[in-house]
Write a structure and sequence with these properties.
Layout (H helix, E strand, L loop, with lengths): L16 H7 L4 E4 L2 E5 L2 H4 L2 H18 L3 E5 L3 H12 L3 E4 L8 E3 L3 E3 L2 E3 L3 E3 L8 E9 L3 H12 L3 E10 L15 H7 L7 E6 L21
Parallel strand pairs: 3-4, 3-9, 9-10, 10-11
Antiparallel strand pairs: 1-2, 5-8, 6-7
Helix pairs in contact: 3-4
Length: 223
């Protein structure tokens, strides 16, 4: 960790100066039929920017205190391990059904892409009373995070926080006539309203439109 990339979590604010610098490296594409699909590949290709993100998370969760980090399939597998290594904490995979042996599964859920089978976790990875950080790249409707929270609670753990690089606040508590799903209502209905979601960046400062070739085609597939 370098001195220049160090940020005290207690002083950090969403969409603050560090976030605005990072946001320059998160372009959006028209993808999967979504006009603004935010691509973390932008900052992954810039080691100093990726390191700054890792450092921010490391400082925050060193202060808060956790026992393990659970990363969500698949981008949470990119973000979680370097943070877990820096904190010397176990990294736990939460995967789609049928991808790991000896697992427990959460109930099916809905997300911005439609209905999904519940996530799974291996039975021996979270112990009763463990303080677990859940991590993913982006939170929108909160369906995937809610599945992960359910898994942690199912095995007797406590979710310290759900951490994401990007938060789409438009889904947090939209007006009733907007037609958008409400993350806060979803969490409340599942008994997860005690779990905080913390993110570095909101969509309000993500204005980096990707430069696309003339023959660009939206070839996104369901995942």
């Amino acid at each position: 960790m370098t001195k220049d990339s160090t940020v005290r979590a207690s002083n950090y604010e969403q969409d603050g100066p560090e976030a605005r610098e990072i946001a320059k490296h998160i372009p959006y594409f028209p993808f999967k039929g979504i006009p603004r699909f935010y691509d973390i590949g932008g900052f992954l290709a810039k080691p100093p920017v990726f390191q700054k993100i890792v450092d921010i998370f490391v400082h925050r969760y060193r202060e808060i205190g956790i026992d393990s980090i659970a990363g969500l399939d698949a981008r949470g597998f990119v973000l979680g391990p370097p943070i877990a290594l820096a904190l010397q904490k176990p990294f736990i995979m939460m995967r789609k059904k049928g991808k790991m042996p000896n697992t427990l599964s959460a109930d099916a859920y809905e997300c911005e892409y439609g209905n999904r089978q519940g996530l799974t976790v291996q039975r021996d990875k979270i112990q009763k009373g463990d303080r677990v950080l859940i991590i993913d790249d982006l939170v929108a409707t909160g369906g995937t995070l809610s599945s992960a929270i359910s898994l942690v609670k199912m095995v007797g753990g406590t979710v310290v926080e759900c951490a994401c690089v990007v938060e789409l606040k438009m889904f947090m508590n939209p007006p009733a006539d907007s037609g958008l799903p409400s993350r806060s209502k979803l969490f409340e209905s599942l008994g997860h309203d005690d779990v905080r979601v913390w993110a570095l960046i909101s969509e309000s400062i993500l204005e980096q439109e990707a430069k696309l070739p003339e023959d660009y085609v939206d070839d996104g597939e369901e995942h």
